[in-house]
Amino acid sequence: MVQIRVRRVLRWTGRTVGLVLGLVALALAGVWVWWQPEPRARGTEANALWARHQWIGEPHTEDEYRRLGALLRDNAITDVFFHAGPFEPDGTVPAAKYRNARKLIAAMRAHAPGIRAQAYLGQIRTVDGEGVIQIDDPAVRDRVLRTDATFLDLGFDGIHYDFEPIYPDDGAFLTLMARTRELTRSRGRLLSVALEQSTLLDAAQPVYKALLPRAGKWKYPPRPTDDFLRKVAGLSDQVAIMTYDVSLPTRSLVGWHFARHTERTLRLIGDRTTVFMGVPTYRPLMDWAEDLPGALRGVRRGIDALDRPPARPYGVGVYADWTTDAADWAAYRAGWLPGGKG
Fold first, then answer.
1. Over 25-64, what HEC string results?
2. Topology classification of domain 45-335
3. Low-confidence ranges of the chain (pLDDT < 50)
4. Angle (deg, nearest 10), helices 251-269 and 2-35
5. Closest Cα to residue 333, out of 310, 313, 314, 316?
6. Residue 219: Cβ within 10 Å count
7. Nearest-5° Cα angle at 221, 215 to 227
8. DSSP of 55-122, one letter per residue?
9. Whole-structure pTM over 0.85, yes or no?
10. Would you kindly state where each structural domain of the chain is located, as residue ranges?
């Protein structure tokens, strides 16, 4: 009798596993078929680049600046986020870290006129005692703002924030954003911000909160909800979505990821603020399916799904200049820029 029950359980388990595997195979096949057609949309000429700290912290020759300017112009980069921090725990940045900033700004004016140089500032947020900077502290926020003003005085065209992690109910972050925008607008400059990719379903946010305790050693970052993303868009001139680090097993699934987030983000905030969808020029060690051409193709498929273009400019944010070689830039031009110049 026991043997009969065991055989029934094994038979039922085998059928269930077979059904699940069959459904997974059908889903993967469907995504693969969806992925095959060439996107109709081309890319745009409003794009950003995250740039390494050495541009601000170290001296460079005039020829190096000239080559940087040519690279930015050739690849339709409109905004460069030059790493200028990170913030110290008290909200300051030591002057030694940006000792070359004035020369960089002068070189950008000479060799890349019209391309905006923004000070890229951020830090690991303190949550439950883990992390570096506590922006819940009003005194720290005041010093952050004074640091921002210092970089604007140096000639930067804007402030680009990247604080992590940021939760959808983060009032301190929204307060900092509102005060920073007052500062940047009073100077005629920009405020941009890097955010994690949003939830594809806001109802999943309680699951994130349950599974991911609010601690600095978070394994996966929290995702902005629709409402939070709209609030941030209303306080910023530009939003860059860190869409990379996908960790999906096939190229078509990675493409679907970029397409879905592009369509969703542009629908949500594309009429409110400039949007840059982050694309990688590095190859993650554990992610063999994610690469720049696939990401760009996915972004274009997301644009295809829109009923109309967003009211504000949009494009991609290339992450990052220190991992991008000549072959990557050629792939970027071929797979993104209007006309597909390789």
1. HHHHHHHHHHHCCCCCCCCCCCEEEEECCHHHHCCCCHHH
2. TIM Barrel (3.20.20)
3. 19-21, 23-24, 26, 201-205, 208, 212-218
4. 60
5. 316
6. 8
7. 110
8. HHHS---HHHHHHHHHHHHHTTEEEEEEE--PPPTTS---GGGGTTHHHHHHHHHHHSTT-EEEEEEE
9. yes
10. 1-34, 45-335
